[in-house]
Amino acid sequence: MKVPVSWLRELTSLPSSVSTEDLAARLTAFDLKLEEIIGGQITGPLVVGRVLTAEPEPQKNGKTINWCRVDVGPEHNEPATEDVPAGRGIVCGAHNFGPGDLVVVSLPGTFLPAMGFEIGSRKTYGHVSDGMICSTAELGLPGDADGILVLEPGLADPGTGAVELLGLNQETLDLEVNPDRGYAWSLRGVARDTALAFGLPFRDPADIAVPETGAEAYPVVVEDPTACPVFTTLRVSGFDPTRPTPPMIARRLVQAGMRSISLAVDVSNYVMLELGQPNHAYDAAKLNGPIRVRRAVAGERLTTLDDVDRALDPQDLLICDDDGPVGLAGVMGAARVEIDAATTDIVIEAAYFDRATIARASRRHRLSSEAARRFERGVDPTLQARAAQRVAELLVEHGGGHIEPGLTVVGEVDTRHEVTLPVDLPRRIAGVESIDTDAAVRALEGNACEVRIDGESLVVVPPPWRFDINDPYDVVEEVLRVVGYDQVPSVLPQASGGRGLTRAQELRRRVGYALAGDGLVEVKTFPFAGPADFDRLGLGADDARRRQVLLENPLSAEEPGLTTTLLTGLLRSAGLNVGRGHDDVAISEVGRVFRPRSGAPAAPIYGVDRRPTPDELAVLDAALPDQPLTAAWVLLGDRERGGWDGPGRPVAWSDAIAVARRLADVLHVEVSVEAASLAPFHPGRCAALVLDGRVVGHAGELHPKVLEAYGLPPRAVAGEVDLDALLAAAPEIGPRPDFSAFPVAKEDLAFIVESRVPAGALQEALAEASPLIESVRLFDLYTGEPVPAGHVSLAFNVRLRAEDHTLSEDEIAGARAAAVQVAADRFGATLR
Amino acid sequence: MSAPNSDYDPVEVTPLRADEVERMRDEALAAIAAADSIEALKQVKIEHVGDRSPLALANREIGALPPQARKEAGQRVGQARGAVSQALARRTDEVEAQEFERRLAAEAVDVTLPTDREPVGARHPLTTIQDHVSDIFVAMGWEIGEGPEVEAEWLNFDALNLGPDHPARTMMDTFWVTPESAAMVLRTHTSPVQARTMLTRTPPIYIACPGRVFRTDEPDATHAPVFHQVEGLAIDEGLSMAHLKGTLDHLARAIYGADITTRFRPSYFPFTEPSAEVDLLCYVCHNDPAHVADCPTCRGEGWVEWGGCGVVNPRVLIACGVDPERYSGFAFGMGLDRTITSRYDIADLRDLWDGDIRFTEPFGIGL
């Protein structure tokens, strides 16, 4: 809300000793937060000028400038010469003005805060430009009008100071109004809070007498009194549409961020700013039949004042006459019945609409307006007739004519309600000892509440414009606002003694440290993805990972939903790193991926008057997509860099699997590795990570086409694992240490097997061949002469040990033979 | 009995003459002293200690002496040989030690050579700040709550007193899951975790909820559609705004330093009443009159916006099954991304999300 400071001062009798900064600080402490103080710093000769001549001069750079002679008043004009009349020569790049127009000129020596520097005389485009013709923006005026500010003809003589004329040094407070304080979208509301904040008496600008005549002003039929509880009309006739808007009204509108359009429109807007009641002025001659307030019918359309043709929804509330809709109620009118330069007979509308109806219409049509903003936050429902009277009086005062006797008021609303609370609730909840009953009552009465004490209770009747005071705690806030939030002491509560991090939280940290310890750099990426990402990953048309949780309003059409794999983001990151010149990249991410649950119902919307039952909560959870925490990694370039002491070791498929194994190890879960073939991996270099018979992830070398799609070097590798599955399988306590102090016997066994035999399976079988075998480790893999084609030589270190004695030669030989036997029986392996 | 050997003349046995023994000893000692390697000492040993050395040969002559002369000659030669042996042993130790030193000296390396072949990992600062903040709460006896990121509309909004027509809903810039009738959103705050906690537990409740949240902001230098926050909720008997202030003051000190305090400004949130914005004393200029005007962090304000907070609205308690007559509570929330960008002077929020390894690397495994 942009509040002209002079207007606020006029309404509050705020002493001039209170600076604008003090005022803003106090209002901020009163929940009207200052965004900024606008205006008030222009110095130097800023004057009205009349354009005498404007010669367009095309320039080499393609632009055309205007070389102008401007009359800036006898005090500032250069004398006339044979060639030119008295005035100043000014170069201007804009074209929305011409000779005869009144403009604002900043002469050399003027400081315009919006420009940030002092205007000087300067040579440009072959002329000496002796100042600047100003645009709205350069003057720091609100609004988005392009080009030069052209003043209304006859507004002032050349040489008149523009600062005073346009109120440019008028300060404006831009206040952030929270959605519960609808009343503060008016000078009336801000002034009341200002008076309360400074302990000043408050005179309500809405104290307006409305003559009761019993006659109708303009007939109104309200078909939906729930959506439109109050509708008032008043009529002004004999209005002179040629009369200008008084400068003060125009200036205040501009300060408040609106444009001055015509007297009738300006007065309507002025009263909306002043009292907070949106209102509408119709050309009575254009209305056909009674005003009708009804819901739209299917297929109905309306072109609103912003020239958008809108398909209406049956929930939309319309203002209509016999020829159809004339406005989307409380949001925006239509051109057909608007007042224009010929309007002399005006019907004024002031209504009170249901907040939700307006909020929904505004959201449905993505159409915010000054009116909608106020209606959806709540307008004083007792204000309509007075606001209409105020509009009518101002119209007549500045535009002539007279107010027709008669006032139409359809409907009435009683929002009066009581809030009852324990007298000590404000003190207890605020935690401020100084809030006694007196302090609470004073604060509430300052907020225009009626207050009475009933035993141990405080009974509060909020004023009709306070839609935010319904519950006892709302009353507490109003009291605390007046007492001051800075009065709240600092007391550290004693928590009841927590159980620390959960097991899963601890384990997740462990995973994070393990990944970092493995040389992986954690990155974070946005979880949005789309078909193009899945194409790049080479996912098949029926790959389940193409089924996304989609968003109604994604930021980009290319990423219409949430990702199903962290690799979409991680591979993009990898590509970015390669593009930025990193040769060796090892990155990881831990985050959620999202998988729709097929056939899941919509999430229910329960009431808020009680706790949903456990069953109801279960239904709610069942509607949510599966969103497991996942870990993924990508490695490329060298795993170990080359250096003075040796060459680098390039990343290999096995590095991707090693990361998965590391995660399993730190969580003490058994993950086995099986050959698999799955995008985005190289079909022959992809491992499935298997936990308790369930595939929980994959790792391996990336498919060459994927590498190409992401701009990654050959042999880059990746992996991804369902971390939630690993965490769930992690035992409460890890394995106990179990070792023997008796001597070890070391045997090396080399086998020749067919290449298709998985070395991992053979190694596992050897380890289980005898209880004396402590460990088995593959130390060499060899193909080629003399190993027959299609075969491979696998050599293992086997360590043998007994728990309770030193092994005898026979025992060692027996265990060795058992291992050889198992290898032969199960894998057809022969000892080399 | 034969007559005394009248021919005996010890002087005639030259090697056993005192001066000759002395000379041989001195020669040997000089040779030992001169030897500067194990090789040289071996040669010295052969020449001056071995069987063919002059002193060894002289020793043999002793037998030829008349008995009365043997003792003296024997003593003389024995002492000389002993001295030589001792000197040799001492010198051998010395030379061995020198040679060992020389060998180690020869093994010296250039310790300034790089040792950077092993890859060094790092954790993202948004991860570590969440851990850090969690630890602060755990130390206060609080627990850490978590929940889904795709959340039911009811939990993200309705249960928190944000009804379907509430103006604040539109201010949340919510991502809605398709179809809208599915009534699911990307959570706009971690508050639904607090609602879930109240729904499934009985007070007292003291939980902090760090996590990832979503708003429909196009990414630019100061906006991101995904960001992190930590929210806290305490529900107990007799809690007030004062306890909220105490908790936030403690958190501010723990994160930003012992001299940092907070201040409240009135504000509005549907889920709290009364509501407040909480500001931090600027941790760069400390609102020091000498520096505040030029402070880039608070831009001359002396205070930095930190988050929102308030007393839990009893309507929220009711929707979540907590008896508002018996319990009261407070809640607060603040962004963590800004804690990182402002403390580390990171101008562009996109750096947190691009995944350039040079962003994460300097943070190592902890802030």
Automatic annotation (TrEMBL), chain A:
<dbReference type="GO" id="GO:0006432">
    <property type="term" value="P:phenylalanyl-tRNA aminoacylation"/>
</dbReference>
<dbReference type="InterPro" id="IPR005146">
    <property type="entry name" value="B3/B4_tRNA-bd"/>
</dbReference>
<keyword id="KW-0436">Ligase</keyword>
<keyword id="KW-0648">Protein biosynthesis</keyword>
<dbReference type="Pfam" id="PF01588">
    <property type="entry name" value="tRNA_bind"/>
</dbReference>
<comment type="similarity">
    <text>Belongs to the phenylalanyl-tRNA synthetase beta subunit family. Type 1 subfamily.</text>
</comment>
<dbReference type="GO" id="GO:0005524">
    <property type="term" value="F:ATP binding"/>
</dbReference>
<dbReference type="Pfam" id="PF03147">
    <property type="entry name" value="FDX-ACB"/>
</dbReference>
<feature type="domain" description="TRNA-binding">
    <location>
        <begin position="40"/>
        <end position="163"/>
    </location>
</feature>
<keyword id="KW-0479">Metal-binding</keyword>
<dbReference type="InterPro" id="IPR045060">
    <property type="entry name" value="Phe-tRNA-ligase_IIc_bsu"/>
</dbReference>
<dbReference type="InterPro" id="IPR036690">
    <property type="entry name" value="Fdx_antiC-bd_sf"/>
</dbReference>
<dbReference type="InterPro" id="IPR020825">
    <property type="entry name" value="Phe-tRNA_synthase-like_B3/B4"/>
</dbReference>
<keyword id="KW-0460">Magnesium</keyword>
<feature type="binding site">
    <location>
        <position position="477"/>
    </location>
    <ligand>
        <name>Mg(2+)</name>
    </ligand>
</feature>
<dbReference type="InterPro" id="IPR041616">
    <property type="entry name" value="PheRS_beta_core"/>
</dbReference>
<dbReference type="InterPro" id="IPR005121">
    <property type="entry name" value="Fdx_antiC-bd"/>
</dbReference>
<dbReference type="GO" id="GO:0004826">
    <property type="term" value="F:phenylalanine-tRNA ligase activity"/>
</dbReference>
<keyword id="KW-0820">tRNA-binding</keyword>
<dbReference type="InterPro" id="IPR004532">
    <property type="entry name" value="Phe-tRNA-ligase_IIc_bsu_bact"/>
</dbReference>
<dbReference type="Pfam" id="PF03484">
    <property type="entry name" value="B5"/>
</dbReference>
<keyword id="KW-0547">Nucleotide-binding</keyword>
UniProtKB/TrEMBL annotation, chain B:
<dbReference type="GO" id="GO:0000049">
    <property type="term" value="F:tRNA binding"/>
</dbReference>
<dbReference type="InterPro" id="IPR002319">
    <property type="entry name" value="Phenylalanyl-tRNA_Synthase"/>
</dbReference>
<feature type="binding site">
    <location>
        <position position="273"/>
    </location>
    <ligand>
        <name>Mg(2+)</name>
    </ligand>
</feature>
<dbReference type="InterPro" id="IPR022911">
    <property type="entry name" value="Phe_tRNA_ligase_alpha1_bac"/>
</dbReference>
<dbReference type="GO" id="GO:0005737">
    <property type="term" value="C:cytoplasm"/>
</dbReference>
<keyword id="KW-0547">Nucleotide-binding</keyword>
<keyword id="KW-0648">Protein biosynthesis</keyword>
<keyword id="KW-0030">Aminoacyl-tRNA synthetase</keyword>
<dbReference type="GO" id="GO:0005524">
    <property type="term" value="F:ATP binding"/>
</dbReference>
<dbReference type="Pfam" id="PF01409">
    <property type="entry name" value="tRNA-synt_2d"/>
</dbReference>
<dbReference type="InterPro" id="IPR045864">
    <property type="entry name" value="aa-tRNA-synth_II/BPL/LPL"/>
</dbReference>
<comment type="subunit">
    <text>Tetramer of two alpha and two beta subunits.</text>
</comment>
<keyword id="KW-0963">Cytoplasm</keyword>
<dbReference type="InterPro" id="IPR006195">
    <property type="entry name" value="aa-tRNA-synth_II"/>
</dbReference>
<dbReference type="GO" id="GO:0000287">
    <property type="term" value="F:magnesium ion binding"/>
</dbReference>
<keyword id="KW-0479">Metal-binding</keyword>
<keyword id="KW-0460">Magnesium</keyword>
<dbReference type="GO" id="GO:0006432">
    <property type="term" value="P:phenylalanyl-tRNA aminoacylation"/>
</dbReference>
<feature type="domain" description="Aminoacyl-transfer RNA synthetases class-II family profile">
    <location>
        <begin position="127"/>
        <end position="362"/>
    </location>
</feature>
<dbReference type="Pfam" id="PF02912">
    <property type="entry name" value="Phe_tRNA-synt_N"/>
</dbReference>
<protein>
    <recommendedName>
        <fullName>Phenylalanine--tRNA ligase alpha subunit</fullName>
        <ecNumber>6.1.1.20</ecNumber>
    </recommendedName>
</protein>
<dbReference type="InterPro" id="IPR004529">
    <property type="entry name" value="Phe-tRNA-synth_IIc_asu"/>
</dbReference>
